[in-house]
C-alpha cells in the first residue's frame, strides 16, 4: 500500500474529448483482488461491468464514436467484422437503439449455425443487412464496404464505415478514458500498479491505455499485452496511426513515452479463435476460484497467460489485470464447457453428486 496520491490533473488533450463523450454510458469500473492468483497482490479491473449488453472495454470506443455519428448527421453505419465479433454486436445494439440504420460485412463462418454472437447479430439485423464475404476475399473487405457506402450515399443520406474492431479515428477520445479511470482506481485504493496486463485483438483498447497513460505521465510503468490476435508489428503500426491522431488532437507533439510495452503470445491455444481443453479448464477455474465468468476466446487465454507469467516471474509489487471481456462471450461454448463441470478445479468432493460425497 502507498499513501494515496493527489488526483492527477487532466492533460489538455484529455479535456476536450471528455466534453464530447456520449452521455448515459458508464465511464468507471471497479478493481478488486483477483482470487486464485497468488497472495492478494494481483488485482483485476472489471471492465465487464460497464455494460450488460456490450462486451467490456469496447464500450469505451463507442463513447466517442456515437457522438461523432450524431454530430455528422450519419443515418446509416456499415460495420465490418467476423461472424463472432463482439464489436459488431455491441455497436449494433447502440446504433439500433438510436434509430440509426445498420449493415454489417462479415467473414463467412465455417459453421453458419446461429450461435453466440452470430445469433445476436442476426437478431439485431435483418438478413438483407448482413453481407457475407468469403474468407479468401476478406483482404478486400474494406474496399468493398467503402464502395457499398458510396452507392448508398449516391441515393441520398450519409454513411459511415466502421472498420473491424472499431479501428477508426472517431474511437480515440473514448479509448483514452481507460487510463483516467485506472488512475482514479489507484487514487481511491491507495495502490499503485507498476505492472498492468491487458489483452489485444485489434489492440484498440490497449493502444488507448498506452496513449492515455502517456498523456497523464503519472510514473513509469510496464504494460503487458497478450496478443490474442495479430503480432507486435501490426500492433505497433496501428499504435503509430493512433499516436498521430492523438498528437493532432493535442495540437502538438505528445510527451515522451513513460511506459514499456511487453508483448506476450497466449500461453495456450495461440492461434486466434482456437479454444482447447486447457483454455476451457481455465474458464472453469476462474469461475470457481474468482467468481468471474470469462469468455474462452479472449479473456480465459489472457488470464491463463498472466497466470503462467506470474508463476515464472513472481511479482514483488501489486499487479493489475484488465478484464475487458464479458460473459456474453461464453455463448456458443455451452456444449464444450458442460462436460467439464464435474472435473473443473475446486474441492473434488463438492464437484461430486451429493450421493457420492464422503461424509
UniProtKB/TrEMBL annotation:
The record ties this protein, via InterPro entries, to: ACCD_DCysDesulf, TrpB-like_PALP_sf
Q: Does the keyword Magnesium apply?
A: no
Domain of life assignment? Bacteria
The cofactors named for this UniProt entry are:
pyridoxal 5'-phosphate
- Residue numbers carrying N6-(pyridoxal phosphate)lysine: 58
What residue ranges carry the coiled-coil annotation? none
UniProt keywords, alphabetically: Pyridoxal phosphate
Q: What is the protein name for this chain?
A: Tryptophan synthase beta chain-like PALP domain-containing protein
MF-aspect GO terms? D-cysteine desulfhydrase activity
Does Transcription regulation appear among the keywords? no
- Active site at 85 (nucleophile)
> Which organism was this protein described from?
Candidatus Sedimenticola endophacoides
By sequence similarity, the record places it as follows: Belongs to the ACC deaminase/D-cysteine desulfhydrase family.
